[in-house]
Amino acid sequence: MAGEELIGRVQALSAELDRLGDPHAKRVAEEFGAAVLEMHGDGLERILGALDEGARRRLADDPLVGSLLLIHDLHPVPLEDRVQAGLDQVRPYMESHGGNVELLWIEDGVARLRLQGSCNGCGASASTLELAVEKALEETAPDLLGMEVEGAVAAGPEITGTALPMMGEQAANGNAPRALSEWIEVDGLEDVAPGALRVTDVEGKRLVVANVAGELLAYHDACAACGGELDDATLSEGVLTCPGCGRGFFLPRAGRSLDDERLQLDPVPLLRDRGAGARVALPA
Questions:
Q1: What's the whole-number average pLDDT of the chain?
Q2: From CA 130, how far away is CA 228, in angstroms rounded?
Q3: Which of 102, 124, 171, 257 is in the most buried spot, having the most CB atoms within 10 Å?
Q4: pTM metric for this prediction
């Protein structure tokens, strides 16, 4: 059984345990589970003690093993380092919208972040950019309890010292802004050479992916001026030119039109993995 299936099975069994009507049976099952968990934790700690730092970090890179190490507070990579790694993954996306993100500090499991820059007229709202950050952190630092955001990247009221729970808590409270789907693997993007474009289908949505100076940027496959598809668009020095109406959009400035600031391509969060792969997140 794959790691994600195992995690899902454990969650399903935990939910069934909560529904048990017999208090004695429920207590025994909970104590049994806790004892098994403690035994596994002791075993994992002994295994890690016999390995060098490099081996421990390689094991922690595995999603299933990393989850187990977090459960037992045995993860070899400090929380701050894992938060920085998540921010490094999403930073190219932030920069493509004229902004950046900085970790100020972590206290009591809550990360204080500063969103920098300006993205006036940006098609992606500040909340969408924040959610892209949250999703990256959910993968690299799932034990993070929340984040506080200082500053705003998009136009609108500045967000100062706003405490945001992580994605799962937002969804549970029904307070999540424009939700993003889970990160979706997209094959073949490692083959997109600098200065090249590729149109790809991701769960029924057509995206155009551009490699601008080594950074992959993704947008919905529709011209902001004429609505036409961008299959035959050209890309030169960061400018994508629509084959239908000839309008040019400067991708390093979040896909804004060169001659009309009101027009802008619709961006999609894209993260490059440490390997060769890439993932995107679409609105749910």
A1: 76
A2: 29
A3: 124
A4: 0.56
